[in-house]
TrEMBL record, chains A, B:
PANTHER family referenced in this protein's UniProt entry, alphabetically: ALANINE AMINOTRANSFERASE, GLUTAMATE--GLYOXYLATE AMINOTRANSFERASE 2
A Pfam family that the UniProt record links to this protein: Aminotran_1_2
Any GO BP: photorespiration
Protein name: Aminotransferase class I/classII large domain-containing protein
Length: 454, 454
């Protein structure tokens, strides 16, 4: 009998080609071990609340009230909710046409797109047009929309940094079958960087934009970690600010799409799926095409849109909730900074491990210098060397990481990616457990000469 | 200078080809008129809350508490929330790993997928496996996922009913460039029907499944209106129940994917973007591929998942909120039924308009018998005849409908689609305004012989 349409052999080949390491072999094995009762520390995904981070109070109060608008008429509402949360809930409900249960415009609620534009203007010092801002179900949905608009066939390619976040390689394989003989259409930057945690300087961004101008590339700026900065030397600077600083011709010519989300920052509201993208120097006809395709999915989820509004327009000095909001925000960001240090220092104390400091974002990407005998052992086990190491780490310690090969790495060089998100009080024990595993692993696979002298 | 990558001329041609009538020319014109201050009655999208339908209280209480979990520790929570909503919020939070702010598994929360499986088993009388149920951001996202898995290249096609909901034609143009010389891979049914409002009988479903078996097609069953039934003669029966009733070979062989949502039913929670699809007779390797691709978007929004849990597991007799929940549900469904009658009767009272009763779903699809002179006038205006009629209707009355051509219709026959969702108290005035416009339009364009005699 011939295969049926949803039998594996007859599926879309581009779907089969998708590889997505963040939820790949390591994640699946970790999920199995968890089912068997092993305690797993999931550092594979930047998912702060899953590791115990508490949500910020004010935005949750506002969205809860938007979900239960009948409370706004209840004389007792003030017992559980502060007046500024009540006022803000009324404000957001007034921006909807029918509350959270109504589809919004496919680009998102106009009033929230206006708040995003005002935020961008305050951040960059240049006006921003709400009509060029589209709200999305998290940044990844926006990236997929733009890549789908850009990639015409299997001969179109996108330059992505190596190492890169595998959303990009996955989406590209989904839309483009083959990456040889290609027309390069766009360049992706992730700033602050995932998985490397670096922040791009003004000079870096200048060079990148010049390159896009010379090579006629769209710049896709993944700036979802713009709030996650753990040092003062390299603050976050948006690609858009540098582009507009450059003036014509580059500032008027280079096409830029910038992405943001409520999932990262210190909010970490991953499960809410809120995000936006902003388009700079994109012609109106293209903006309309993107609108049309967004319409097929009707509307991004409305609660996620309200989280985005709250993120770009948080409580202000003098508001009842201001001090609490600032205290909660500061506590999270300062703890993340301390955790970045504990993790980097911890990795650097391990045999054959070197690690740059996490300047921004929420990841650590140590290089693991695997001895030749470990590489041979991996080969015998039919695994890539970094996958072999990460699986052993998982089995020994419960620490679930992502092998560097999922992000791309130099030939013969091996990394892993962890988040810096485990609870601060758990961090020393995790790093001790990591060191014990790593140093024993190195002991086991190093020969007498010692790998470090090679 | 050569065009830039996001200039219209160089975009993905499949994106340009997408047509989506529900938010097409009519919707854009209606939005413009609204901006100019005209009162618009948006009956183009099934968006009940936008037309004044109030959300059901119990699910909103539960989700509000899940958004504000700190309220669960507040001794005053009982002043604003009933005990069963509090208990249910605790239940759903216990199914998450980190509350609403954490990404869930890419297939959705296992505990909610279990509640969906139990609902399907109660409905159909056959067990359902939670591992074959994937939660999605509304049904349309699930449809896109499955079509993307199925359609391999421009030679693959999908049979869709005519008239059809344009999500299907839009998604197909997105994934497949051309619809000639095609391998048909799947058949779509929408039951209860959109836009026609018909309910399929057991005999219809039997025939359709036999056809899928003979022709080796996947059946994609869009059953998002399964709660929206306005008569007793043809209750909703799921494609899955009939398939399993048929037994082998058909019951074991035909591949079926069924879609559901929280956006429709009498809940109408469109803005929350909750949905699921269930796979029957789909091989495990394919299920894994769909999981992998879903992982690229990380996770469906978690509040939407909880709405889905609540929809399949509503308050039970004896629960504190039961009577209120039932009363609210009944009021909405009975009003929808009355509105279906008002609308059908209203259309049938108009000159040159005939309309079937809306047995289910939330649409009315009257046939408008346009006189030849109206068709000529449309031609002179460069419009399709039904678009011409609908635009005139919009300008004259503010009623925003969708021309039948967006759904497909027989050559030379013209329809429009409206929802039955305007508030019941507004319905008589809307139908009076429609009749006045229609009858004057017919008067203007009919010649002396009278079109009805042709």
């Amino acid at each position: 009998m011939s295969p049926k349409p949803l039998d594996y052999e007859t599926l879309n080949e581009n779907v089969k080609k998708v590889a997505y390491a963040v939820r790949g072999e390591l994640y699946l094995r970790a999920s199995e071990l968890q089912k068997e009762g092993k305690k797993i520390i999931f550092t594979n995904v930047g998912n702060p609340h899953a590791l115990g981070q508490k949500p910020l109070t004010f935005p949750r109060q506002v969205v809860a009230l938007c979900q239960a608008p009948f409370l706004l008429d209840d004389p007792n509402v003030g017992i559980l909710f502060p007046a500024d949360a009540i006022a803000r809930a009324k404000h957001y409900l007034s921006l909807t046409s029918g509350g959270l249960g109504a589809y919004s415009d496919s680009r998102g609620l106009p009033g929230i797109r206006k708040e995003v534009a005002e935020f961008i203007e305050r951040r960059d010092g240049y006006p921003s047009d709400p009509e060029l801002i589209y709200l999305t179900d998290g940044a990844s949905k926006g990236v997929m929309q733009i890549l789908n608009t850009l990639i015409r066939n299997e001969k179109d390619g996108i330059l992505v940094p190596v190492p890169q976040y595998p959303l990009y390689s996955a989406a590209i394989s989904l839309f483009a079958a083959r990456m040889k003989g290609i027309t390069v259409r766009a360049m992706v930057i992730i700033n602050p960087g995932n998985p490397t945690g670096q922040c791009l300087s003004e000079a870096n961004l200048n060079e990148l934009l010049k390159f896009c101008f010379q090579e006629n590339l769209v710049l896709l700026a993944d700036e979802v970690y713009q709030q996650n900065i753990y040092q003062d030397e390299r603050p976050f600077i948006s690609a858009r600010k540098i582009l507009l600083d450059m003036g014509p011709p580059i500032g008027k010519e280079v096409q830029l799409v910038s992405f943001h989300t409520v999932s990262k920052g210190y909010w970490g509201e991953c499960g809410q799926r809120g995000g936006y993208f902003e388009m700079t120097n994109i012609p109106a006809k293209t903006v309309d095409e993107i609108y049309k395709v967004a319409s097929v999915s009707l509307s991004p989820n409305v609660p996620g849109q309200i989280f985005m509004g709250l993120m770009v327009n948080p409580p202000k000095p003098g508001d009842i909730s201001y001090l609490r909001f600032v205290a909660e925000s500061k506590a999270i960001l300062e703890s993340l900074k301390r955790r970045a240090h504990i993790m980097t220092d911890g990795f650097n104390s391990c045999r054959n491990v070197v690690c740059n400091f996490t300047e921004g974002a929420m990841y650590s990407f140590p290089q693991i210098r695997l001895p030749p005998r470990a590489i041979e052992a991996a080969k015998s086990a039919g695994k890539a060397p970094d996958v072999f190491y990460c699986l052993k780490l998982l089995e020994a310690t419960g620490i679930s990481t992502v092998p560097g090969s999922g992000f791309g790495q130099k030939e013969g060089v091996f990394h892993l990616r962890t988040t810096i998100l485990p609870a601060e009080e758990d961090m020393p024990a995790i790093m001790t457990s990591f060191k014990k595993f790593n140093d024993e692993f190195m002991e086991q696979y190093e020969d007498y000469r010692g790998y470090s002298r090679m």
